[in-house]
Write a structure and sequence with these properties.
heterodimer; A: alpha/beta; B: mainly alpha; 8 helices; 79% helix
């Protein structure tokens, strides 16, 4: 077997081993006193989401939809946390729902931790609605009246008794929606939510989904898009520049050096694979 | 970090390593982790559905407000006025979707599975009725409008808009199979293939990025666990020496 044939039949476990070494490399460099921080290039679609929250005034209400479960936590948790922190720091009130079936507990943990950090009170500074099945119907319902699907919040308190909900009847009474989503719920927010009831909508989605949602950005159906861990790192960077976050609090940005090294390995293997393929084909012919 | 948190973190780290072990080859540790995730997810969802949907919509709304004293009397003495009094506070019409839900369970029986079609038809009817006009508006018309924008040759944006229209047209030509892809028509189809490849490439690149992000988060988690483990072992050693 020639060299190029060997390249073509390389055991995939060698690729995994190389990726494993690449992802450990940033930590090793950190141990030896060479921490790597890559300042991200800020894309206009992420900046647009940040600016939208930035322009909100005290006591404005924002709707934050946490529509992902622990499987997408790596990519979406940092941006959900960052938006919450920005709102709480600016004293913007937040209504939160969690329409992903395995996500309500995780969302509650995130909300209560962040609220505790900023001394925010449930029902006064934020309201967590929780989960209800069939997201499309729930989104349509919340666009008309929160109480249709959520007569009580996640903790069982009637919405009527919450001071924050006195002036808010439906999503149209909020300044807009930021949907942090993994899966088809994002489409439902576009179609059955903002598309039908005309409120501003931005998405934060996983990297796998991002390519599908850029057309919605160009058509004006979305005012912003945060895609995957890279988008979250951009958001964190903007937060740091705005004085909302310290570098030590960074979450997604910690993963970016790992991403860089892993991508280099993946690109190298793609090149090696292609060289092997073309050379072995030439040899055969 | 409390000891309880550390224990949970240890379980998480162990399950992560079990899952990664699949990269070498399939093994019982991986299978255990996989089955655990599926089982826990299904169990969590079932309990969540019961408490977020069935309990407030059926139990609390239909059955809890019923005056059972009058209800029993109504059947004992066969007096409809008692039945009305019993059901006064109950929103009994919520039973209709409840029954539709129960009808779905007939799918478990070969003989009775036809009953579930009524529920499915009802659900699909609502879904399709609500989404077709919206889908046409939000996925077709709005995208058509944003594809065909005013073109000009004085700015890069204007030229870019023309390019978008041409490339969209070429992509559509590729999917037109009623005519042989030859000559100018074939050349347009070839351009269409390139456009599709660029789109797939972007999708693939973002998918790789997403998957690596998941790996990065797990690696960070394992690294944080390693720091905690070192501290835990140090404390254990320190108190062990003291004792």
């Amino acid at each position: 077997m020639g060299f190029y044939e060997k390249l073509m039949s390389l055991d995939r476990r060698w690729v995994y081993l190389c990726v494993a070494i690449a992802v450990v490399l940033p930590f090793l460099l950190e141990e030896f006193g060479v921490p790597i921080f890559i300042p991200p290039y800020i894309t206009p679609e992420v900046k647009s989401v940040y600016n939208f929250v930035e322009k909100l005034r005290e006591d404005d209400v924002l709707f934050l939809a946490i529509d992902y479960d622990p499987m997408a936590k790596a990519e979406l948790h940092p941006v959900a946390r960052a938006v919450l922190k920005q709102c709480f720091k600016k004293n913007v009130k937040v209504i939160i729902s969690a329409l992903s079936q395995n996500g309500p507990g995780m969302a509650e943990q995130l909300i209560s931790q962040t609220a505790k950090e900023y001394n925010k009170v449930d029902g006064v500074d934020y309201v967590y609605l929780g989960y209800k099945p069939f997201p499309a119907l729930v989104i349509m319902g919340m666009s008309q009246n929160f109480k249709l699907f959520f007569p009580k919040d996640y903790y069982g308190t009637p919405l009527d008794s919450l001071p924050m909900m006195a002036k808010v009847r439906n999503i149209k009474d909020t300044k807009g929606v930021i949907d942090v989503a993994a899966g088809s719920v994002a489409d439902m927010w576009i179609n059955e939510g903002a598309g039908r009831y005309n409120y501003p909508l931005a998405l934060a989605v996983t990297g796998v989904m991002a390519a599908d949602y850029y057309p919605f950005l160009n058509s004006g159906q979305l005012f912003g898009l945060v895609s995957g861990m890279k988008g979250a790192a951009e958001y964190e960077y903007l937060m740091e520049k705005g004085g909302y976050m310290k570098k030590e609090e960074f979450d997604a940005s910690r993963g970016m050096p790992i991403q860089m090294f892993a991508h280099i390995v993946v690109i190298l293997f793609i090149i090696i694979g292609n060289v092997g393929y073309f050379m072995s084909r030439r040899k055969k012919s | 970090m409390s000891l309880v948190d550390f224990m949970w973190m240890s379980i998480g780290a162990l399950l992560t390593l079990f899952t990664f072990s699949y990269l070498y080859k399939d093994n019982p540790f991986y299978k255990f982790a996989e089955h655990l995730v599926v089982g826990v997810s299904a169990g969590y969802f079932a309990v969540l559905l019961y408490y977020s949907s069935f309990m407030p919509k059926v139990i609390d709304t239909v059955f809890r407000p019923i005056e059972w004293k009058y209800f029993i009397l109504a059947f004992k003495q066969i007096k409809p006025e008692y039945l009305l009094a019993a059901l006064k506070g109950s929103q009994w019409w919520y039973l209709v979707p409840g029954i539709l839900g129960v009808m779905m369970w007939t799918r478990f029986s070969r003989k009775l599975s036809w009953i579930s079609r009524f529920s499915l038809a009802f659900y699909m009817g609502i879904g399709i009725g609500a989404s077709i006009p919206l889908t046409l508006q939000n996925y077709v018309l709005k995208h058509l409008t944003s594809t065909i924008q005013p073109v000009n040759f004085t700015s890069l944006t204007g030229i870019w808009r023309l390019l978008i229209v041409i490339l969209v047209f070429c992509t559509l030509v590729y999917f037109f199979f009623s005519r042989e892809h030859k000559g100018a028509f074939g050349a347009s189809a070839k351009v269409g293939i390139w456009v599709l490849m660029i789109a797939f490439g972007a999708g693939f690149g973002l998918t790789v990025m997403g998957r690596v992000a998941l790996l990065a988060e797990r690696v960070i988690f394992l690294r944080d666990y390693w720091v905690e483990l070192k501290y835990f072992l140090y404390m254990l050693f320190k108190y062990g020496m003291l004792l």
